[in-house]
Structures are given as C-alpha cells and as structure tokens.
Amino acid sequence: MTLDTKDRAIIEATQAGLPLVPQPFAVVAETLDMSENELLARLKSLKAQGIIRRIGAAPNHYRLGMTANGMSVWDIDDKVVDELGEQVGSLSFVTHCYRRPRALPMWRYNLFAMVHGDGREEVLIKRDRIADLLGDACRASDILFSTRILKKTGMRLSGQKG
Amino acid sequence: MTRDLSKLDRQLINRLQDDLPLVSNPFETIGDDLGLSEQEIVDKVRQLRDDGFLTRFGPFFDAEALGGAFCLCAMSVPENRFEDVLTKVNAHAEVAHNYERDHKLNMWFVLATESRGDIMRTAKEIEHDTGLEVLLFPKKREFFVGFRVNA
Lengths: 162, 151
Known about the structure:
The structure holds two protein chains of two kinds.
Chain A: H1 5-14, H2 24-31, H3 36-48, E1 52-59, E2 68-76, H4 81-89, E3 94-99, E4 111-117, H5 120-134, E5 138-152
Helix pairs in contact in A: 2-3
Chain B: H1 7-16, H2 28-34, H3 38-50, E1 54-61, E2 69-75, H4 82-90, E3 95-101, E4 107-113, H5 116-130, E5 135-137, E6 141-142
Antiparallel strand pairs in B: 2-4, 2-5, 3-4
C-alpha cells in the first residue's frame, strides 16, 4: 500500500466529512486543485486497497435512542474462535467484533462483540442470541455495560506526515 | 434538543449507512429510491447531522491502513481514585475513547498512536502516572460486520 502526497491531501480534506451538497466530490476536488475525475479515481483506488471502508454516514447511537451499549465477551476455544467470530460478526446487531488475547488470570475472554440497544434488556436479549449461536463452544461469558463516556475524540490523521 | 424522526428520516438514516457510490451525484440514487429530489436528500442529511442524529458523513478510513496503531486497554481503578486516575489517563492525547464499564476492570480506553511502539510507551507512561496496571487487548483479528444501526 502506498499513499502519495495527493492521497494524503485527499484523506486530510475528507476525514472530517464531505460537504453536504449535490456534488460533494467536485467541491473537494476544487479545493485540492485536481479534477473531479482524478479525485473519484483516487478514492476508488483507496477503497480497492481497503484504506476506505465505505462512504456513508455515522449514526449517533445515543441520539437514536440506542442508549445502552454492552461489550459482550466470550471465552472460546482457540481452535474454533475464528470461525465462530465470523458468524457472530455477521449478526445484524453486532457493531464490532474482534478476537483479542486473553490476559490470564484476570481475563479469560478472547472474543469481543459490541451490542447496542434501546436499553439493557434489549442488549441482553441480543447477547442471548450470540450465546445460542456459540453453543457449547462458549466456556464462559460476561457483558460489560458502559456506564459513562469518559472521552470520545475522533481519530484524525495528523497533518505532519507525508 | 429532541424531535421525532419521521419514517422517511429513518429510511434515510438506514440508507446512508450503506456504501454510497463514488460518482458525481452520490445522493441521486437515494433520492430515486425514497421518492425525493437530490436537493431534498442533501437538505435532509444536513438537518439530520445538525440535529445530531448523524455524527458525520463521508469516507470511513481504516485507521490502521493509514499507518496508525490502535489498542484497546483496560484498568481496574479503585472507586475512590476514579476521578483522579481519569484525569491522568485522559491527559494523554493518545487516549481516543474512554468508557467506564461495570466490571472490576472498570476503565476501558483505546490508544491511537502513529506507530506500534508508541502504544507500549503510552501504556507504560499511564502505568507510571497512575501506579495501576494497564492491560493491553490488541486486536488479533477483526470480523466483518455490516456496521449499521436500525434507526
């Protein structure tokens, strides 16, 4: 993967969001002093490389009434965790799903699946659906509800690089 | 500020979580699907953003593909020291998100740094500042998710 100066400039110009106008790419292209066609071609290339995952909107869970979020965590046999992780990730209500290392003896869980809901009950119902899917492969599980957001800043590419 | 979302607003929020095409007029097809003009879609998206239902509209970058490093971390913070420790942890610019959770490990934060080495360095600094152990949970594998909230 290679990012040249123009790609970096595109990322910096768009990471806070696109202008909300009928032709957002034309507006961005003008500020970057490139043609709209070049910008679109470069964005397509960034997408093909996996650097851009998608173009769309980030919903505000809390504003949409999804006030409860639970980090469900699972102790799964290492031999089957990848296969089962794929299945958990494909459940429509799971918003993030990762395999992570255990931190024994304090932490035995190796599969993390984030679940949002209108309230804790809804999150727990969704948690049960994950448990059903995992079946006997799950040796133990827990769910950690967030009680407070202590900090939330956007990830920003620093302007110094590139 | 609160307002109720119309059925159309909800359809639009759901639609906006799909991948938009990389074309000159990306809102055009959404308008066709929802029976609105392109300009009406743009105005509605702006309104939803201004009202806080959408936090941002644009490309989603894979932060690691950009060369950054990320790591989920957790600490077990004694209740009577919580605010003091929080201040010390959040003082690090590398702490991108931080959540209090109801568990013995009650503080969960994400470190975002320019390089992998900086993750370790920052975690050590936080341990030094707070006198508490920082557990690191780097992702070993990410499983694909549709990543959408049903509005």
